[in-house]
Amino acid sequence: MTQTPRRSAGQDNDIAALALLWLVGACLRLSILAVPPLMPLLHASLGLNEGQVGLLSSLPSLMFAMAAIPGAFLVARLGIGSTLLIGLLLNAAASAARGLVPQVDFLYATTALMAAGVAVTQPALPPLVRNRFPRRIGFATAVYTNGLLVGEILSASLTRPLVLPLVGGHWRGAVAVWAVPVLATALLVMAFGRHLVPRGRPAADARQWIPDWRHPLIWRLGFLLGGVNAMYFVANAFLPDFATAAGHPELIESALTALNVAQLPASFLMLALAGRMATQRWAYVATASLSLLSVLGIIASRGEGMVLWCAVLGFSNSITLILAFALPSLLCAPADVPRTSAGMFTISYGWAMAVSIFSGQLWDWTRSSLSGIAPLALCAVVTAVLAGTLSLAGHAERAAPAAPVTPD
To answer: Taking the model in full, what pTM does it have?
Structure first.
């Protein structure tokens, strides 16, 4: 009689760690993407004008840029595990509080705090992956990015048809509901975080949390990831008006759905391939080039071809996103991963906001719908060129040494 092989305790710990990592990734977007579907209700309840809607929509990206470096400070001072808890708890508390006071200023403040919680969490993940999975950096990065993308889709797609009826149609209750899984994840990290965060923390001087802005790698990574973020945010923002100007308003929902849902199969594919592709420069160049081709396809298409090219853009861009998230862990010494990640996030989200503002202004100046989409092609070119400058030789994960840790 043959016996079924038993999993070792180490394998069980890895499964628990990856499950927690996925949940933390999902919490990066769950509470944020719940707001856009509720915007008509916020309009009616708070009397928001379009400028206020724009400010509310841009606050998360602004905070992602501003609070990333404080996140690196917390990692250096308190360690990865404590930083994760602070970020998750701030995210949950501020998300639940968004509907408590019927003033728009309070909504702004709590939205900013919620996004700050996410921003603090983000730079803790690359060093966590580098420490906990030093030989599986690409795979572990794909795991939490898959959670991020699933979180986007769940909150954006379920808020109106499922959550809103459960809370009697009140937007305040709907935004509070999405704080529950974030709080639950924080409690799970608190209870079982020993499986996720290695004992100790990176051997680093606690004062070394400020990114080295003189190092060209930070700028290359920042603008590379910034191009990816800009393509996603600008496409979501301007596709509806672009489709309308092209005479196909009936394709708006299909195009946006294709752009966002196509990210999901890409993220599942990367669970299998990220470990190999993350150390191959051609993979970054190829996926960025495919994004460029898809942008040109959207511009040139008439009719349903636009939907197809939106799906290609979502697919290729999400692969580049996953690969880019892994770069600080692959290219930096363990002690430098938090501050390099923070610098990368600061530059990338700042760049994405700048491109979004520029695209809108260019559209207003030229009165051409092409102006809102054309900057995406430039972002794809910049991403491909910067990817071509990366030196990934010798960074194969199978050769990655375990990260040094020191006792807490």
So the answer is: 0.83
